[in-house]
Amino acid sequence: MKGLQLGQQASASRIFTSADVAQYRALSSDSGLQFGMKGKTAVPGPFLAGMFSDLLGTKLPGRGTNWLKQQLRYPAVALVGDEITATVEIIRLRPEKKLVNCRTTCINEVGDIVCEGEALVLVKDLVQVFGLES
To answer: Rounded distance, CA 104 to CA 90, Å?
Structure first.
């Protein structure tokens, strides 16, 4: 797992629009709970989880990663129009099993955590596809 180290991070930011949420609801039939919000729309949880998926597969650990499982909690509501920043951080390396545990966090523009959890990924394919040493 050359190139991977504890504490290594990758982040990405995005602003979800009302049109994004409307398109998601039309495709999924998920009307959303809205968490008691009036006048503003909550960003669906799968959008936030998707930000982690993108980071895990493209930035850290990167291409060839097999996402095994993820645990998520939503301590606050992410709102449409707010800038959301997702961060993935390596918190445990298990080179003997080619496994990496990552902390996953989404914050809004004022720093409130809107989604947090942990992801377990297999990086075995990084060795096979890219010739990285273990």
So the answer is: 9
Whether residue 48 contacts residue 75, with contact meaning beta carbons closer than 8 Å, is answered with no
Residue range of the domain that includes 112: 9-130
Across the chain, what does the average pLDDT equal? Answer: 82
Q: What would the pLDDT profile of 10-48 be if each residue is shown by its tens digit?
A: 999 999 998 888 888 777 776 665 544 555 688 888 889
| Residue 21: CA count within 13 A, CB half-sphere | 19
Distance CA 48, CA 70 (A): 12
Cβ neighbours of residue 22 closer than 8 Å, sequence gap 6 or more: none
Residue 100 belongs to domain with CATH number: 3.10.129.10
